[in-house]
Specification:
Blueprint (H helix, E strand, L loop, with lengths): L1 E9 L2 E9 L8 H15 L8 H14 L3 E2 L4 E6 L2 E9 L13 E5 L2 E3 L6 E11 L9 H6 L4 E2 H5 L5 H10 L3 E8 L6 E3 L2 E5 L4 E3 L3
Antiparallel strand pairs: 1-2, 3-7, 4-5, 4-6, 6-12, 7-11, 8-9, 8-10, 12-13
Helix pairs in contact: 1-2
Length: 210
C-alpha cells in the first residue's frame, strides 16, 4: 500500500489531501482502504456549524471498527489557518469526549486512519520534511522567505544553497527548525489513510479537495 498525502498553498491559504492505493491487483488491502474512504465520507456528512467534534470522531471510529480494523487514536484531522497547516483544532478518529464545536468561517481537514494493528503510532526516523519552529521565527532567514511557516522538503532547500545539510543541522540544533518523523505502527501492521479539506460556511460546507 502507498499513502499519498499532498497539499497546496495559495498565498498562505492551505489545503490538505490524502488517499491510499494498493500497488498491484491482489485486492488484499481493499477493505482496509475502503474503511478510511467510507469513514471520511460519513464524517463529512456530520460537518456543520455547531457540530461536536466528538460526534465526528465517533462516526469515523464506528465505520472503521465495522470493517474489523482499529482507528489510529493518536492521529487525526486538524484545523487549517493561513500559513498554519495544523492549527489548534484536533479532530479525532474516535469519540474522545471532546465537546468543542465547529463554527462557520473555518477550514478543517478530516483525516481518518485505519489500522490492522493496535491503533497507536510512534515516531520513527526523520522523514526529510521540516518546518520552522520555536517562539521566534526570523523573517530574514532564507527558509522563512521561501516557505514562511508551512512544511518544506529537504530537496527544496538544496535548490536554495550549496551547504543546505549544514544549514539545516545548525537550524535544528538551535531549535529554529523541526523535522517531521516517519510514523510507524507496530511491526507487521498496515495503515490506510484518507483526507479532505473542508471550508465551513454559515449556509454550506465546501469540500475543497478532490
Amino acid at each position: 500500500m502507498v499513502k499519498i498525502d499532498v497539499g497546496a498553498s495559495v498565498d498562505g491559504y492551505l489545503s490538505d489531501n490524502a488517499a491510499t492505493v494498493e500497488v498491484g491487483e491482489s485486492g488484499q488491502h481493499s477493505d482496509l482502504i475502503d474503511a478510511t474512504r467510507e469513514a471520511l465520507n460519513a464524517a463529512i456528512k456530520k460537518v456543520r456549524p455547531g457540530a461536536q467534534i466528538r460526534a465526528i470522531g465517533q462516526e469515523i471510529g464506528s465505520v472503521i471498527t465495522s470493517h474489523g480494523f482499529r482507528p489510529i487514536k493518536n492521529l487525526g484531522g486538524h484545523g487549517l489557518n493561513r500559513y498554519d497547516l495544523h492549527s489548534e483544532i484536533f479532530i479525532p478518529n474516535y469519540d474522545d469526549g471532546n465537546g468543542e464545536t465547529l463554527h462557520s468561517d473555518m477550514a478543517i481537514a478530516i483525516e481518518p486512519f485505519a489500522s490492522t494493528g493496535i491503533g497507536m503510532i510512534h515516531n520513527g526516523p526523520g522523514g526529510h520534511i521540516y518546518i520552522l519552529s520555536g517562539t521566534k521565527v526570523r523573517k530574514d532567514e532564507p527558509l522563512y522567505q521561501n516557505f514562511n511557516t508551512v512544511p518544506f522538503a529537504e530537496r527544496w532547500v538544496a535548490k536554495l544553497m550549496p551547504d543546505y545539510t549544514d544549514y539545516l543541522r545548525k537550524m535544528m540544533k538551535s531549535k529554529e527548525v523541526s523535522e517531521f518523523a516517519v510514523l510507524r505502527e507496530h511491526k507487521g501492521s498496515f495503515i490506510s489513510q484518507a483526507e479532505h479539506t473542508l471550508l465551513i460556511l454559515s449556509d454550506e460546507v465546501i469540500v475543497t479537495t478532490a
